[in-house]
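Shapes recur. Our protein:

. . .
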Amino acid sequence: MTKTGAPARTPVLGSRFRWLWSSSVASNAGDGVTRTLLPLLVVASHPQPMVVAGLTAVNMLPWLLFALPAGVLADRHDRRRILLFSNLTRAAALLAAVGAFAAGTSLAVLFVLSFVLGIAETLAETAAPAMLPDIVASEHLEHANGRLFAPQVILNEMAGPPLAGLLVGVGATLALATGGALYGLAAVLLLGLAGVKAAPRTAPPPGTSAARSLWQDLRTGVSFVLTRAALTRTLAASALYGLVYSATFSMLVLLAYRTLHLHATGYGLLLTAGSVGSIAGTWLAPRLARRLPTLVQALWSLILSGAAYVGLGLAGHVVAAGAAIFCNGVFMMSWNIPVLSLRQRFAPPELQGRVMSVSRLCSWGTMPIGAALGGLLARTTSVTTVFVTSGAVLILGSVALLAPLRQDALAGEQPEASRVPRQHTDTERGEHDRGTV
């Protein structure tokens, strides 16, 4: 049964969603290969820890520099074309790197490549969720987001790393070319979305300078978020989750080696358990969303995730640790999917990109800080303390942030267009050209 008492049915998402999903599968496969490939190539020639850490920092830097401007671009231009440009840019960059390796590459080429891939990812990860309400009806967003998250977990965290390792074993140029081909395939598959009607865009006022126009658009997006309690509080909770996740994940390898006495294979299996939990969460979260109020699901997902972190820190046996990290993967997706869908519903079409960019900045911008705090806490206390403290902070913080919100107040904060469902014709019901926004 659904929240309204009607029988639960599997939504029909339509052919346009299938094109988007197929493109997402290809691009996530490219992500899974390149995110493992670049560190392996750096380690092969420069195995110093600071060099490897610098590569990761360069790849994540565009999220701090360009996340908010990427949201403005996604609201001014056709989001499908932004995705197309992003995938083509990544394909071209990797294929150019093939030529650089053939000519004898340098460390600087790998750093430039990492930065370019980071910029393209920032654009793609902002435009894609902003475009989803153009394709899928509002009441099916949880199901659609769950379908998109599943291949991301499988290909980024499970299949991509071993594939990259095998490809590097054959040759660096083959590995780079494979990543480029996957992004090229993702671009080609986006051509199937050519008929999607773009949401209305607001042009800059005549005579306004580019810098001033950008600043005004940024202020409009941030103001929209700050004047809605549901968005502000869930974004604050996302920032807190980013801190907790990065603090614990940065110390997970030490927990595995020192406390659980695992080696490389055991640590890999522990990560796999978390990934399997995330996949299970992508299946469970949309079904819970049809039965539970969004805020109830979000609050309890964070509370249970915090409890899983505490359990992981206190686990003295690998089986208990595997169960805890599996459950945490389930609860993480049970939080991510309904809250992302909530933000997509709240934002009017012309602000989807900016709301998504603020969301990404809050979620991912806090991760470097969390990793540093986790390291400091582990050095002054213990690795176990990092997990127990992080879990307790997540539980208390989520209650403080989300408990004051009331589900019946959400409708009053949503834009009028988001609250009035559009009547589908018989033809539209199968394709969902555009549902409620």
Remarks:
- The chain has 17 helices and no strands.
- The CA atoms of residues 425 and 432 lie 10 Å apart.
- The chain has two domains: 10-196, 221-423.
